[in-house]
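User: structure tokens for this one?
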Amino acid sequence: MTKNYIKELDFILFSLINEYENINDGVNFYQEEAPKSTKEMVTEMVIAKYSLKEWEINVLFHHLLIDKYIISIEPLTISLEGIVFEGNGGYAEKSVQEKLENARIKKIENDLNKYSFGLMVFTGVVAIGTLISAIYFMLEIWKHFT
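Assistant:
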């Protein structure tokens, strides 16, 4: 059974953009432990929300890198395409658009098959009519010379 990671990818991209916007807000000078990186914070949020394994989250980060919606994770660099893509609905909207496009293509294919069958019938009728007229004129020519 395959798992669909559309919600998780959208959440990761949204969280990365949110962290990127707030990266310089609230600097802690007296923190006992080293500050968490953006990837670690987003990874913890995804684990808490979706209960994914860390290797799955790494694959999702890699998917975002391949799609060029993020340029790098540490230091966090998000591409303009990533911001625009997330603003336009992200992977969920992309999935909906792909489904609509596939339905449109299926409808066009069905219409094409229907029209193709009609054209084949029309061609058959024209061929039969041409054959009948050829036989008629051959008989007329044969009568004329005999």
